[in-house]
Write a sequence for this structure.
């Protein structure tokens, strides 16, 4: 690099150490006969980065091989030292030998250049005054006296472009950064060259590809108001909303290439939307089995976009050892405003458990609101009828008793994970309150409160995941709540290793009667051994209690191991668990087979 104030150079800043790392990460692993080209004269602070960038190479078999390896390494070293601010460095490859060949790179880094100044030069008309002030603040990391490394310069250039486009300039672009080096003072002056282009606002939607979907439904998904300033984030949000409907195989949204003046130098740009509608009907099948809960199969048929508004009708049926259920659900999204969804349901079901037998049905309605991208809340009402045989009717020998139930629900749910079937990072939490009124043989008012949270995180590797879950619940009010509203513990979705419902309160005769409170805790370590196979070690603990206070002192624990097979739709799981606090009558182990992680 020439010295003196007259030196001017247009830096090729894209050739940074970060870019080199991505390239050399693709190199094959080294064999025992390979080694890195030795480099001398490099500051010790760069040794780790150099080791990451330089690949190991086979020992040279000729002088030509040695020279070629040295030159290749020298090119990498030169880019590294320049990216760190040593712009006057001298990098010299060398090779020697007749029968045994050596090679290497000598480095004289010279002085470390520091930043003298940084500024923005606008090519063409500059952006508005407010945007210019905001862009100038992004130069703060490049203060005078800071080492003139390439990475902060690149990061600043990216930030300038993103901010300029976010300010409503969709065609903003950047020319390569100009850098002026002073070889005597060892300083650099950076000039970012930006071309803002015309500012734009959102115009109309130009939609093509609609068949069954209503035009007004697609229009209701746009997150901007007519005439609002263009924002790439808003356009991305619109694309996401189109994808989240689940009714399109393809959804493309982009600004039209031309625009019309919307006042001053602002152009109104329409948004072109190209849609391909997907199949409307799907059929899903599922199965589960365990030694404590028996076996069961489920089937579901769904028709989407029923009326052209993104709505759906789902018919689901379950046939299992403990439960038979038939359910029809109608869902209508974005009623009144985006994120407000309505659900109507009709259910007929029959339970047959050790604690109670119950046959009945209900109708329900709920409204769900997406409060934030991860938090949603819902309010609902339910009216139902149940014919019940439980310990109360068995003792009194009165046959079945009839109950009519009217209840409400209030739920808040936080979903901070990407994959609900196989979460690896994040938090899930749910709290609910269910006030209810039963009448028939008796009239009772009660409130059922419950909360559950799960935490997931990597344990030093993306293949090793730790998971924790906790759940508590209580029922406030007099005794006599419907059996299916009581709490039970034990089994595959609760405390593995114990019979279904077996960790629940019993009467004086030893019969299960259900509890008014619940506490559960689980921990898992999940190891993804390969693309398809994984293993799990887990521990569960919990109990249901007869009082309002959760029965922490009565908790029993189980431990076990599991296997996961990762199919395309999610993991298939098989677990075996043993009880740690085994009682008379408890089995030595329990086996569970199902779809998805345990929690």
């Amino acid at each position: 690099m020439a010295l003196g104030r007259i030196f001017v150079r247009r830096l090729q800043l894209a050739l940074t150490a970060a870019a080199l790392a991505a390239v050399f990460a693709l190199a094959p692993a080294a064999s025992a006969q390979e080694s890195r080209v030795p480099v001398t004269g490099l500051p010790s602070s760069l040794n780790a980065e150099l080791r990451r960038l330089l690949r190991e190479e086979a020992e040279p078999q000729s002088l030509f091989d040695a020279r070629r390896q040295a030159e290749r390494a020298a090119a990498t070293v030169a880019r590294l030292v320049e990216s760190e601010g040593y712009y006057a460095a001298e990098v010299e490859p060398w090779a020697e030998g007749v029968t045994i060949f050596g090679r290497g790179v000598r480095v004289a880094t010279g002085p470390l250049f520091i930043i003298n100044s940084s500024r923005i030069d606008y090519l063409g008309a500059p952006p508005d005054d407010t945007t210019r002030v905001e862009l100038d603040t992004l130069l703060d990391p490049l203060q005078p006296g800071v080492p003139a490394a390439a990475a902060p310069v690149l990061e600043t250039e990216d930030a300038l472009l993103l901010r300029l486009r976010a300010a409503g300039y969709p065609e903003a672009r950047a020319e390569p950064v100009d850098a002026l080096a002073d070889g005597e003072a060892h300083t650099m002056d950076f000039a970012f060259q930006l071309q803002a282009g015309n500012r734009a606002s959102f115009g109309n939607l130009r939609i093509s590809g609609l068949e069954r979907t209503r035009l007004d439904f697609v229009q209701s998904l746009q997150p901007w108001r007519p005439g609002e300033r263009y924002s790439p984030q808003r356009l991305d949000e619109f694309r996401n909303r189109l994808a989240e409907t689940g009714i399109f195989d393809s959804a493309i949204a982009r600004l039209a290439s031309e625009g019309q003046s919307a006042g001053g130098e602002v152009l109104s740009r329409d948004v072109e939307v190209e849609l391909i509608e997907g199949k409307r009907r799907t059929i899903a099948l599922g199965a589960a089995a365990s030694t404590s809960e028996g076996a069961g199969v489920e089937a579901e048929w769904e028709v989407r976009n029923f009326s052209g508004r993104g709505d759906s009708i789902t018919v689901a049926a379950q046939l299992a050892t403990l439960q038979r259920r038939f359910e029809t659900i109608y869902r209508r999204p974005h009623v009144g405003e985006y994120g407000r969804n309505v659900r109507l349901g009709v259910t007929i079901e029959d339970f047959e458990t050790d604690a109670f037998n119950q046959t009945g049905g209900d109708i329900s309605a709920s409204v769900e609101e997406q409060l934030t991208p991860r938090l949603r809340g819902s309010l609902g009402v339910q009216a139902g009828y149940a014919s019940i045989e439980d310990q109360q009717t068995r003792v009194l020998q009165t046959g079945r008793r009839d109950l009519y139930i009217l209840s409400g629900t209030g739920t808040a749910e936080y979903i901070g994970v990407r994959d609900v079937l196989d979460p690896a990072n994040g938090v899930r939490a749910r709290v609910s309150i269910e006030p209810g009124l039963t009448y028939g043989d008796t009239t009772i008012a009660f409130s059922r409160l419950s909360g559950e949270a799960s935490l997931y995180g990597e344990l030093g590797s993306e293949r090793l995941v730790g998971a924790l879950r906790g759940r508590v619940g209580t029922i406030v009010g007099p005794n006599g709540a419907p059996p299916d509203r009581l709490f039970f513990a034990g089994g595959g979705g609760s405390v593995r290793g114990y019979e279904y419902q077996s960790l629940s309160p019993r009467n004086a005769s030893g019969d299960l009667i259900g509890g008014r409170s619940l506490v559960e805790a689980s921990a898992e370590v999940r190891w993804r051994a390969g693309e398809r196979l994984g293993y799990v070690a887990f521990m569960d603990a919990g109990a249901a209690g007869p009082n309002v206070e959760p029965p922490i002192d009565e908790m029993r624990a189980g431990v076990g191991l599991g296997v996961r097979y990762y199919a395309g739709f999610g993991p298939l799981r098989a677990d075996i668990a043993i009880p740690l606090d085994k009682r008379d009558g408890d089995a030595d182990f329990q086996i569970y087979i199902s779809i998805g992680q345990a929690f």
Notes: The two ends are 61 Å apart (CA to CA). The CA atoms of residues 124 and 195 lie 6 Å apart.
